[in-house]
Amino acid sequence: MENAVDEAAPSPSFEEALPPEFGRFLAGAFDLHVHGQPDLAESAQNRGSDIGVARLARSYGIRGWVLKSHLWPTMDRARAAQDALGDDFRVIGSITLNPQVGGVEPTIVEWAADHGAGVVFFPTWGARADVDRWGYISTLLEKQTPGFRSYAESHAITVAVDGELTSAAEDAVRAAVSREMLVATGHLGLEESLAVARLCHQLGRPAMITHPLHFTDDARELQPFIDLGGLLEFSSAPLINPTSHHSVRDFAEAIRVVGPENVVLSSDVFSRWVPPEPESLRTLTEQLHFLGFSAEELRTMLVVNPHRLLRLPVPELA
Ligand SMILES: [Zn+2]
Known about the structure:
binds zinc ion
């Protein structure tokens, strides 16, 4: 009976295994890039349920997040999660303008808005630039769907030619901004992202530049985005990916070049080997702190800038 006490003990919660003040930099954070379960496939069991992981995030002090999917709009599941979670955690739905939802079209953006989407991501695996680099998502989708490569190649989306947006892309951006939605550049190439960011700037609603280091290793090349008021997104996901080309030191150096005032940090993880989103974000944040970023700089990237992008009031420092 020596083990009687241990046997009677409840299983430890995730929080019990974390260091004291594990949410020290995440209080008030808003994660602009969270992939739910499922994302690419029901059979790809990457993490716990949308609601379970959101409850965990709440214990870190995270205030809410944007639910994103590479395949299907997330507005309805965001609403279901919101209903289950109550008012102290905000879940915002989004649409990603990949080919299978109809691509970059203003009418689709408007319908998404009518269903409560708060963010429009430009194409990810469906962007011409991403098909050309055949990134991680495409590798996964090709495994899942044998016909994917020819589908992606024949449906790849280009939104700008010689730096000029196509009329559909221009109208899609205008539709998003007029419906109070944040525009994120998805996996567009640098030139195309810049064209999107330029129009967002003209319309008075800065864009979020997703994964800016996908297409350049030189952070100085990102200055034109900053000049357009765009906020550069740095996510945990590319650092945890086994095929990653980047280390957290690369991110730290890039963020020093562009300045934390121009950056948002997000999780964007959705693979079986990653910790849940709040823990992925904590890891990135603690490492950046170790590499010299102050609590105030981290708060700028995790709390202030995401709320600014979403046009939500910035929570007071507790
Ligand atoms: Zn993503």
